[in-house]
Design goal:
The chain is mostly helical. It has nine helices and two strands, in the order H-H-H-H-E-H-H-H-H-E-H. A two-stranded antiparallel ribbon has the order 1-2. The relative contact order is 0.17. One of its GO terms (molecular function) is endopeptidase activity. Keywords: Hydrolase, Membrane, Metalloprotease, Protease, Transmembrane, Transmembrane helix. It comes from Kribbella sandramycini.
Length: 278
């Protein structure tokens, strides 16, 4: 099978998993069950066809910590600069509410978004494309497929909603309430950052950590008031929200720089060895 069709299977699997979870969410009053359904479907559709190493399911602790520290650190730098410039002001910090939010958000975000999306896209799709193409083409292809997932999920939800006689939203390429252009620009930058995490570390868990940290930072800051997160940020105008893609770009650059630095000593050593020792 052509590698592009194999890669597209990853996007289709994630779309099916996400669309099914949205349908479950409309049918039951439980915020955890849809997340569990999404993760299970994605794992069942992807894991049997790929070995752990092919998916990048290696070095879980190191990978997760790298993703969290790089993304969280870049967000702190960028948001810190925005705060110092007077663009962002912060509300009261409620320790108990923040800890409760972090617990519930981590469970749901990992199961509903971070793990299944990384497994199907930066895991399966990236591996399929890298088997035939270079890193740049694979990154473009994986990110392009990432942009198709919301539309596929919307179609799956519409079909399942009709079968189960549930109220379903109209077919759309972006989630309801989102400006399509802004959403897809941010999703594109996010997709390249997630690929950078996987490529730089060789571990899918770095992408999972990056994904989880991105969701947590945004929900705890600019979306904090809407989500009762115990802390929230106010911005002087909507243009300040460009700080979100800014810290993603910074994180991608950190991953790229780290990958370059790690590869140079090995290359230098190899080039310095006599021919008979190589």
């Amino acid at each position: 099978m052509n590698v592009w069709w194999r890669a597209a299977y990853g996007a289709a699997a994630m779309g099916i998993a996400l669309g099914s979870s949205i349908t479950v969410s409309a049918a039951v009053d439980n915020k955890y069950l849809p997340a569990v359904v999404c993760a299970l479907i994605a794992i069942l559709l992807i894991r049997p066809f790929r070995r752990r190493k092919e998916l990048g399911l290696v070095a879980p602790l190191r990978g997760l910590l790298t993703g969290v520290l790089v993304t969280g650190g870049c967000a702190a730098v960028v948001f810190g600069a925005g705060t110092a410039a007077g663009w962002i002001s912060w509300g009261r910090f409620d320790v108990r509410a923040v800890l409760l939010f972090l617990l519930t958000n981590t469970i749901i975000a990992v199961l509903l978004e971070a793990l299944p999306e990384e497994l199907s896209l930066r895991g399966h799709a990236w591996t399929a494309l890298r088997s035939r193409h270079g890193g740049f083409v694979a990154a473009l292809g994986t990110t392009g497929l990432f942009l198709l997932v919301p539309g596929i999920a919307s179609a799956v939800q519409l079909i399942l909603g009709g079968i189960l006689d549930l109220d379903s939203q109209e077919l759309s390429l972006a989630p309801p309430g989102e400006d399509p252009v802004a959403y897809f620009v941010l999703l594109t930058i996010f997709g390249f950052t997630l690929v950078a995490a996987r490529a730089a570390t060789g571990s899918l868990w770095a992408s999972v950590g990056t994904h989880l940290t991105f969701l947590t930072v945004n929900r705890l800051s600019v979306q904090g008031a809407d989500r009762d997160a115990g802390w929230s940020a106010s911005v002087v105008n909507q243009d300040v929200l460009l700080l979100i893609p800014a810290y993603l770009i910074l994180a991608a650059l950190v991953y790229w720089a780290g990958q370059s630095l790690m590869s140079r000593p090995a290359l230098s050593l190899a080039s310095s060895l006599p021919q008979r020792e190589r």
